[in-house]
Design goal:
Blueprint: E1 5-8, H1 19-25, H2 31-58, H3 64-78, H4 85-95, H5 104-113, E2 117-122, H6 126-136, E3 144-147, H7 158-168, E4 175-179, H8 182-191, E5 194-198, E6 214-216, H9 222-228
Parallel strand pairs: 1-2, 1-4, 2-3, 4-5, 5-6
Protein backbone atom coordinates (compact mmCIF):
# COMPACT_ATOMS: atom_id res chain seq x y z
CA UNK A 1 0.00 0.00 0.00
CA UNK A 2 1.57 3.35 -1.02
CA UNK A 3 2.40 6.11 1.43
CA UNK A 4 -0.41 8.65 1.78
CA UNK A 5 0.63 10.42 4.98
CA UNK A 6 3.96 11.82 6.21
CA UNK A 7 4.16 12.50 9.94
CA UNK A 8 6.98 14.42 11.58
CA UNK A 9 8.20 14.78 15.11
CA UNK A 10 8.69 18.48 15.86
CA UNK A 11 11.55 19.25 18.24
CA UNK A 12 14.92 18.19 16.87
CA UNK A 13 13.31 16.93 13.65
CA UNK A 14 11.73 19.98 12.04
CA UNK A 15 12.88 22.56 14.61
CA UNK A 16 16.43 23.06 15.84
CA UNK A 17 16.26 22.71 19.64
CA UNK A 18 19.77 24.12 20.06
CA UNK A 19 18.79 27.41 18.42
CA UNK A 20 17.58 29.14 21.59
CA UNK A 21 20.83 28.67 23.52
CA UNK A 22 22.97 29.39 20.47
CA UNK A 23 21.13 32.62 19.69
CA UNK A 24 21.16 33.82 23.30
CA UNK A 25 24.89 33.10 23.56
CA UNK A 26 25.57 35.41 20.61
CA UNK A 27 23.85 38.37 22.27
CA UNK A 28 25.87 41.11 24.01
CA UNK A 29 26.54 40.50 27.69
CA UNK A 30 26.15 36.71 27.46
CA UNK A 31 29.84 35.84 27.66
CA UNK A 32 29.35 33.23 30.38
CA UNK A 33 26.73 31.44 28.33
CA UNK A 34 28.84 31.76 25.18
CA UNK A 35 31.54 29.66 26.83
CA UNK A 36 29.27 26.66 27.40
CA UNK A 37 26.01 27.15 25.48
CA UNK A 38 26.33 23.80 23.70
CA UNK A 39 26.52 21.90 27.00
CA UNK A 40 23.57 23.84 28.37
CA UNK A 41 21.53 23.10 25.24
CA UNK A 42 22.37 19.39 25.44
CA UNK A 43 21.49 19.18 29.13
CA UNK A 44 18.28 21.12 28.59
CA UNK A 45 17.17 18.77 25.82
CA UNK A 46 18.13 15.61 27.71
CA UNK A 47 16.25 16.64 30.84
CA UNK A 48 13.24 17.67 28.78
CA UNK A 49 13.08 14.20 27.25
CA UNK A 50 13.88 12.40 30.49
CA UNK A 51 11.09 14.18 32.34
CA UNK A 52 8.54 13.19 29.67
CA UNK A 53 9.48 9.53 30.06
CA UNK A 54 9.41 9.66 33.86
CA UNK A 55 6.07 11.47 33.97
CA UNK A 56 4.59 8.96 31.51
CA UNK A 57 5.70 6.12 33.78
CA UNK A 58 4.39 7.68 36.99
CA UNK A 59 1.19 9.10 35.50
CA UNK A 60 2.11 12.64 36.58
CA UNK A 61 1.28 14.28 33.28
CA UNK A 62 1.77 17.98 32.64
CA UNK A 63 2.24 19.86 29.40
CA UNK A 64 5.62 20.16 27.71
CA UNK A 65 5.93 23.84 28.55
CA UNK A 66 6.21 23.00 32.25
CA UNK A 67 8.72 20.28 31.47
CA UNK A 68 10.70 22.64 29.23
CA UNK A 69 11.00 25.09 32.12
CA UNK A 70 11.95 22.33 34.59
CA UNK A 71 14.61 21.01 32.22
CA UNK A 72 16.03 24.47 31.69
CA UNK A 73 16.26 25.10 35.42
CA UNK A 74 18.26 21.88 35.83
CA UNK A 75 20.56 22.85 32.94
CA UNK A 76 21.05 26.38 34.27
CA UNK A 77 21.95 25.05 37.71
CA UNK A 78 24.41 22.58 36.20
CA UNK A 79 26.04 25.50 34.37
CA UNK A 80 26.13 27.71 37.46
CA UNK A 81 23.63 30.13 35.89
CA UNK A 82 20.46 29.43 37.84
CA UNK A 83 20.45 32.89 39.44
CA UNK A 84 20.37 34.70 36.09
CA UNK A 85 16.63 35.41 35.81
CA UNK A 86 17.07 37.54 32.68
CA UNK A 87 18.87 34.73 30.88
CA UNK A 88 16.20 32.22 31.89
CA UNK A 89 13.45 34.46 30.56
CA UNK A 90 15.32 35.06 27.31
CA UNK A 91 15.96 31.36 26.67
CA UNK A 92 12.31 30.53 27.27
CA UNK A 93 11.22 33.32 24.93
CA UNK A 94 13.52 32.04 22.20
CA UNK A 95 12.15 28.51 22.59
CA UNK A 96 8.84 29.79 21.20
CA UNK A 97 10.70 31.02 18.12
CA UNK A 98 12.86 28.04 17.21
CA UNK A 99 14.08 28.05 13.64
CA UNK A 100 13.42 25.12 11.36
CA UNK A 101 16.26 23.27 9.67
CA UNK A 102 17.13 24.77 6.30
CA UNK A 103 15.68 21.96 4.19
CA UNK A 104 12.29 21.82 5.96
CA UNK A 105 10.16 24.31 3.96
CA UNK A 106 11.10 22.95 0.53
CA UNK A 107 10.76 19.35 1.70
CA UNK A 108 7.24 19.93 3.02
CA UNK A 109 6.26 21.88 -0.10
CA UNK A 110 7.37 18.96 -2.27
CA UNK A 111 5.34 16.48 -0.24
CA UNK A 112 2.24 18.65 -0.61
CA UNK A 113 2.80 19.04 -4.37
CA UNK A 114 2.99 15.24 -4.53
CA UNK A 115 -0.47 15.00 -2.93
CA UNK A 116 0.55 13.64 0.46
CA UNK A 117 -0.92 14.44 3.85
CA UNK A 118 1.60 16.16 6.13
CA UNK A 119 1.41 16.67 9.87
CA UNK A 120 3.36 17.05 13.07
CA UNK A 121 2.94 14.55 15.91
CA UNK A 122 4.65 15.95 18.98
CA UNK A 123 4.99 15.93 22.74
CA UNK A 124 4.64 19.70 22.51
CA UNK A 125 1.56 21.52 23.76
CA UNK A 126 -0.68 23.07 21.08
CA UNK A 127 0.36 26.63 21.88
CA UNK A 128 4.08 25.80 21.84
CA UNK A 129 3.72 24.03 18.50
CA UNK A 130 1.68 26.87 17.02
CA UNK A 131 4.44 29.30 18.00
CA UNK A 132 7.15 27.21 16.37
CA UNK A 133 5.14 26.52 13.21
CA UNK A 134 4.24 30.17 12.75
CA UNK A 135 7.78 31.33 13.48
CA UNK A 136 9.15 28.91 10.85
CA UNK A 137 6.48 29.93 8.33
CA UNK A 138 5.39 26.38 7.53
CA UNK A 139 1.72 26.41 8.52
CA UNK A 140 0.65 26.43 4.87
CA UNK A 141 2.36 23.11 4.12
CA UNK A 142 1.00 21.18 7.11
CA UNK A 143 -2.46 19.61 7.20
CA UNK A 144 -2.47 19.35 10.98
CA UNK A 145 -0.44 19.62 14.15
CA UNK A 146 -1.20 16.76 16.54
CA UNK A 147 -0.28 17.10 20.21
CA UNK A 148 -0.08 14.49 22.96
CA UNK A 149 -2.24 16.79 25.07
CA UNK A 150 -5.31 15.22 23.45
CA UNK A 151 -4.45 11.86 25.07
CA UNK A 152 -2.59 13.03 28.19
CA UNK A 153 0.56 10.91 27.85
CA UNK A 154 3.88 11.41 26.11
CA UNK A 155 5.52 9.39 23.35
CA UNK A 156 6.32 6.59 22.94
CA UNK A 157 2.93 5.51 24.34
CA UNK A 158 0.94 3.77 21.56
CA UNK A 159 -2.04 6.05 22.26
CA UNK A 160 -0.01 8.91 20.80
CA UNK A 161 0.66 7.10 17.51
CA UNK A 162 -3.04 6.17 17.39
CA UNK A 163 -3.77 9.86 16.78
CA UNK A 164 -2.48 9.58 13.21
CA UNK A 165 -4.95 6.94 12.04
CA UNK A 166 -7.80 8.66 13.83
CA UNK A 167 -7.05 11.97 12.13
CA UNK A 168 -6.25 10.80 8.59
CA UNK A 169 -8.27 7.57 8.42
CA UNK A 170 -5.25 5.73 7.11
CA UNK A 171 -3.70 2.33 7.69
CA UNK A 172 -0.39 2.12 9.55
CA UNK A 173 1.26 0.90 6.35
CA UNK A 174 0.32 4.18 4.62
CA UNK A 175 2.26 6.28 7.12
CA UNK A 176 5.86 7.44 6.81
CA UNK A 177 6.91 8.59 10.28
CA UNK A 178 10.01 10.76 10.61
CA UNK A 179 11.89 11.57 13.83
CA UNK A 180 15.34 12.70 14.87
CA UNK A 181 14.88 10.85 18.16
CA UNK A 182 16.13 7.30 17.79
CA UNK A 183 13.80 5.95 20.48
CA UNK A 184 10.81 7.61 18.76
CA UNK A 185 11.72 6.18 15.36
CA UNK A 186 12.16 2.73 16.93
CA UNK A 187 8.80 2.93 18.70
CA UNK A 188 7.05 4.07 15.52
CA UNK A 189 8.53 1.12 13.63
CA UNK A 190 7.31 -1.25 16.33
CA UNK A 191 3.88 0.35 16.12
CA UNK A 192 3.68 -0.49 12.41
CA UNK A 193 4.62 2.73 10.62
CA UNK A 194 7.30 3.02 7.98
CA UNK A 195 9.85 4.78 10.15
CA UNK A 196 12.77 7.08 9.35
CA UNK A 197 15.45 8.02 11.85
CA UNK A 198 17.00 11.37 10.90
CA UNK A 199 20.32 10.93 12.64
CA UNK A 200 21.97 14.34 12.26
CA UNK A 201 24.58 13.65 14.95
CA UNK A 202 25.59 10.17 13.67
CA UNK A 203 24.68 8.62 17.03
CA UNK A 204 24.57 4.85 17.66
CA UNK A 205 21.17 3.27 17.28
CA UNK A 206 19.15 2.68 20.44
CA UNK A 207 18.97 -0.93 21.62
CA UNK A 208 15.18 -1.35 21.55
CA UNK A 209 12.84 -4.10 20.32
CA UNK A 210 12.13 -2.50 16.93
CA UNK A 211 14.46 -0.79 14.47
CA UNK A 212 13.60 1.99 11.97
CA UNK A 213 13.47 0.81 8.38
CA UNK A 214 15.20 3.90 7.02
CA UNK A 215 18.09 6.15 8.07
CA UNK A 216 18.96 9.66 6.88
CA UNK A 217 21.28 12.46 7.95
CA UNK A 218 18.74 15.18 7.12
CA UNK A 219 15.23 15.54 5.69
CA UNK A 220 16.14 16.25 2.08
CA UNK A 221 15.40 12.72 0.84
CA UNK A 222 11.97 12.30 2.46
CA UNK A 223 9.88 13.10 -0.66
CA UNK A 224 11.82 10.62 -2.80
CA UNK A 225 11.52 7.93 -0.14
CA UNK A 226 7.78 8.50 0.24
CA UNK A 227 7.34 8.19 -3.52
CA UNK A 228 9.27 4.88 -3.65
CA UNK A 229 7.44 3.07 -0.87
Amino acid sequence: MPITTCIFDAYGTLFDVTAAARQAAAEPGRETLAANWADLAANWRFKQLQYTWLRALTGDHCDLWQITQDGLDWALEAAGLLGDADLRARLLQLYWELSSYAEVPKMLETLKKNGLNTAILSNGSPDMLAGAVNSAGISGVLDDVLSVESVGIFKPAPAVYDLVGARFNCAKSEVLFVSSNGWDACAAAGYGFHSVWVNRAADPIDRLPAVPQHFMSDLTGIPDLAARL
